[in-house]
Fold:
Amino acid sequence: MTEPEGSPPAGGTEAGDAPVLRTRGLGRRFGGLFAVSDVALALRPGRTLGVIGPNGAGKSTLVNLVSGHLKPTTGSVHVGGKDFTGARPWRIAHAGVARTFQIVKPFRGLTVADNVAVAAMFGPSPVRSPAQARREAEQVLERVGLGGRGGVPPAELSVADARRLELAKALALRPRVLLLDEVLAGLRPAEIDPALALIDELRRDGLAVLVIEHIIQAIAAISDEVLVLHHGTVLTQGPPRQVLSDERVVEAYLGHRYTRKNPS
Ligand SMILES: Nc1ncnc2c1ncn2[C@@H]1O[C@H](COP(=O)(O)OP(=O)(O)OP(=O)(O)O)[C@@H](O)[C@H]1O
Ligand SMILES: [Mg+2]
Structure:
């Protein structure tokens, strides 16, 4: 990894509209195949980028490359203008990038509240006292809709609540970039709008948000831009309305799902 500490950020400062996270030419090969190839994206404070694409398109791999859970084969990842390409996950987390896992990853031996308190104690601006961390945890749990569930083990949570815990752990890091990998999956229809409202509130608080989701209407409602991954490459990127009416997207993604759900 090259990390020119102290060097001026490429392309200006973080003030204003500058990206807080940027990838260029990002790619990852597994065996002979690129799961993600040549992805350039920029996340800006107070903006949401929606990422869609069929199953296996490379969405989770992209998040893993950005968060340091996978090392890129090609390209770069910059956070706050500094090069974090190939950096370990904890270093990227300390730079302010938090993520959720599509397959939830709680500490099973800890209560729900302590899972969140641990995140509060080991984030970029760590809370030193366990009592204070627990108070923060309670606040975050309340915010994500898990108020009152802090005392139970994660194994007792429903699928939807386990995803809420993932979000709570990410938020307890007090990140400036939030990468959400299908946090709405498993929510009942009535639960989706409040979850979208929360994500939008986080954006308004100034976070840069990347949200992966299969529910197109949900993505369109909260995203400033939508990026479509297809076979690991960026098929197109732009304002939701424009992207979702793009014939290539309809064919690659919407059409695919539509025909699966509605076999003639
Ligand atoms: N660790 C790995 N080793 C080998 N292949 C992998 C690995 N991780 C992902 N892949 C492959 O990379 C491709 C992209 O997978 P990925 O999980 O990123 O897709 P996705 O868009 O998140 O799909 P989904 O919508 O099902 O979550 C798939 O073909 C997958 O099998
Ligand atoms: Mg995935």
Q: What stands out?
A: Residues 1-15, 258-264 have pLDDT under 50 and may be disordered.
